[in-house]
Amino acid sequence: MTNKQLQKSRMWKYFIEATVEIIHEEGIDKVTIRKVADRAGYNSATLYNYFSELSHLKFFAAMRLLGGYIEEVTSLMEDGETPLDRYLIAWECFIRHSFRSPKLFNAVFIMDLGDQPGKLMQRYYEVYPAELVNVPDELQPTLFERSVMKRGKSMLQMAAEEGQIPPEQMNPVNEKTNLIWQGMMTSILNHRLDYDIGKAEENTMTYIREVIEGVRL
């Protein structure tokens, strides 16, 4: 890495860590460009040299706060004996964490990030490569994928290749399970639930399992 690249990474980290501090103290909705710049010890014009949109700052800061999720899903998936087992384990972990921290997951996986949002995930792990140290090689491509719709596709493809589900059901299953999560997530974000988060987690996982059982060979 060149000196210029190192300097850029350091500046990114200053602003990202300042954003994380604001989220801890006030919540992600209270993050503003001016607050972040002031906290980092720079002016807003300097910040805009590194981040073109406020949503990008929120994305990177939210990723920093999802470390517990990454560690847990990495550990739990090791217990899955088949691709379909790992697919369900991954969903259960993702549902639990996303429903309990909906605004953080919204900033990473749902919020409009402008052009080429997929590159932000790759950039994040370039700035914080240590977060991939304990992640198995086969799981790393999934972590680089921001699109929830695409994240589970590799496991479903392996499940189809091993004869667990019909190949023609791979895409429908992927779409159905993602739409189930998105629907419940939207209800949580908009405070439209008639029951608590625990029940939302239980129902969502039940619906996803029903989709899987409907096509399992």
Give a topology summary.
Layout: H1 3-26, H2 33-40, H3 44-48, H4 54-64, H5 67-77, H6 83-100, H7 102-110, H8 118-127, H9 140-143, H10 148-151, H11 153-161, H12 170-189, H13 197-213
GO molecular function: DNA binding
Organism: Bhargavaea cecembensis DSE10
Protein name: Transcriptional regulator BetI
Give a verbal description of the structure.
It is a single chain. This protein has 217 residues and is mostly helical. It folds into two domains: 3-62, Arc Repressor Mutant, subunit A (Orthogonal Bundle); 67-110 and 136-213, Tetracycline Repressor, domain 2. Helix content is 69%, strand content 0%. It has 13 helices and no strands. It has helices at residues 3-26, 33-40, 44-48, 54-64, 67-77, 83-100, 102-110, 118-127, 140-143, 148-151, 153-161, 170-189, 197-213. Helix 5 runs antiparallel to helix 6, helix 6 (83-100) runs antiparallel to helix 11 (153-161) and helix 11 (153-161) packs antiparallel against helix 12. The longest helix has 24 residues, at 3-26. The mean pLDDT is 90.
